[in-house]
Design goal:
Radius of gyration: 20 Å
Strand content: 15-25%
Order of helices and strands: EHEHEHHEHEHEEHEHEHEHEHEHHH
Helix content: 40-55%
Strand order of the largest sheet: 2-1-3-4-5-6
Number of helices: 14
Structural class: alpha/beta
CATH architecture of the largest domain: 3-Layer(aba) Sandwich
Distance between the termini: 13 Å
Number of domains: 2
Length: about 350
């Protein structure tokens, strides 16, 4: 017998971010395991919906009420504390937290505190809270009032990949992520501007429409440092093109302020790529020391230093690549993620 659940998301499930990719892949695994999944779009505007958008999202959630579980993606869940309290009374309510809304880079203190209060209230209504790393789980307990018995950590899966073949030329650095301030692309450009004497090129892949001001800042910095011929900013690309870019890369770099897990980092490991990143959030739990070098978020000088050694020292790159290949063997699969989600949902029905 099919087991029905509702999976509620803000906007479009096909949006090209790690969070939506997690939703898509886990939903597919649950369907394979016999669940009938109703994907419910809550509309746009999150995490700052206007009154009309918020009322519409709440109405859609109420209309989906039944006695079966409902999973609500955290990008919307934290902004809907009132309807979360209502849903708890009628059906098992699961909050899926990729990373807390209040920790997004670029918020004012007033915005951060407002999201903190809203998300704490919403999470208190959840029967279960799923998050994607032990680091985020600890944070939810410490700052958001989530209890240990509410929490389940379900790591994202990673597809098995052949080792990247590399560029065969100047060191090809690949950076993947939506062009928002948290991803630190501006800091990466600043760091690379200090390596003009070395043979490297950078490809940036990621949605430019999420924050046009952030994208424009990166463009301006590239022009300012006269790096137009060495840095390609591609925007969104097809899955096949992205796989080809990983295959032609010699290393992966992303200067994120923080990550709730870091799916792009895991993908880089799966391709056997040396990784340069930061210690922000859960990245240190995703990238082992043998596979990469992590620096403090925002430290451009330290980022430039580890990049200089990576580009300049072939043996160093080769050693980190071996560490990445070893780490890839222990990355969980999407089948494992789906099975863990299935086990959780079975306990709720």
């Amino acid at each position: 017998m099919a087991k029905p659940i509702t999976w509620a998301i803000p906007g479009d499930l096909d949006t090209a971010t790690g969070g939506y990719a997690y939703d898509r892949r886990v939903i597919a695994e649950l369907q394979r395991l016999g669940w009938t999944v109703e994907v419910l779009s809550l509309g746009g505007g999150f995490p700052w919906p206007n009154e009309v958008q918020k009322a519409d999202a709440e109405a859609r959630l109420r209309a989906a009420a039944s006695d079966m579980p409902i999973v609500v993606d955290g990008l919307a869940f934290g902004a809907l504390p009132e309807v979360a309290a209502e849903l708890r009374r009628t059906r098992p309510l699961v909050a899926l937290v990729h990373h807390p809304l209040a920790l997004e880079t670029g918020l004012t203190e007033v915005q951060s505190q407002a999201l903190l209060a809203s998300e704490r209230s919403a999470l208190a209504a959840a029967r279960s809270v799923v998050t994607t790393s032990p680091w985020t789980a600890d944070l939810l307990v410490e700052r958001f009032g989530v209890t240990g018995d509410q929490l389940t950590v379900i790591l994202p899966g990673t597809d098995r990949r052949p080792p990247a073949r590399g560029s065969g030329g100047p060191v090809h650095l690949l950076s993947v992520g939506a062009m928002v301030p948290r991803k630190g692309f501006d800091l990466l450009v600043e760091a690379l501007s200090r390596l003009a004497d070395l043979p490297w090129r950078l490809t940036i892949v990621g949605d430019r429409g999420r924050d046009p001001d952030a994208a424009a800042r990166v463009d301006s910095l590239i022009a300012h440092h006269r790096l137009d011929g060495r840095i390609d900013v591609l925007g969104k690309v097809s899955p096949g093109r992205l796989t080809a870019l990983y295959d032609s890369a010699d290393a992966f770099v992303l200067a994120s302020e923080f990550e709730g897990y870091g799916m792009a980092f895991a993908e880089a490991l799966a391709h056997g790529l040396p990784v340069i990143g930061t210690t922000g959030g859960a990245i240190h739990q995703t990238v082992p020391a043998a596979a990469g070098r992590l620096v403090a978020p925002g430290d451009v000088a330290a980022l430039a230093a580890v990049l200089r050694r990576l580009v300049d020292d072939h043996d160093h790159r080769r050693a980190l690549a071996a560490g990445a290949r070893a780490a890839a063997a222990s990355l969980p699969s999407w089948a494992q993620a789906g099975e863990k989600f299935n086990d959780l949902l079975v306990l709720l029905i």
